[in-house]
Amino acid sequence: MSLFSIHKRNRIGTLLVALQFGFMLLLPALAAPAIVQGKVPISAILLAISSMVLFVWTLVHNRLGNFNIRPTPKSWGVLITTGPYRLIRHPMYTSVMLGAASLALMADPLLGWSAWTALALVLLVKSILEERWLREAHPAYSSYIIESKRFIPWII
Fold it and tell me: What is the pTM of this model?
């Protein structure tokens, strides 16, 4: 891969991460009034707990230094297929979407779910690019895709 391609991938990745974090900051701001008023539905709590459990489970199987916040794989990265990665290829993205859904439940429905949908689309684009680039870095990734789902076990 040429140096130009690496820089282009990094710029695209940086843009996607900026969008992701923008929506991740917007959602708590939208949910803040409900949280301040104590209007936190049990479903939001359960989604937040699910998000945290998946986050921790993922970190147990994939150390912080092995993955990249941008969709560009690290040159020294190791392909992980254990733990949550056995079932889903992007458990961190799923964790983010679960946590964001808990916030969207507490926000104005139109604004909250619009922000959640935009975040989910950004994560979908990130995952598509990341998978394309992971196939280049890890030849075994192509067979791994067949055995796992992108975000939700047995479904998507």
Answer: 0.92
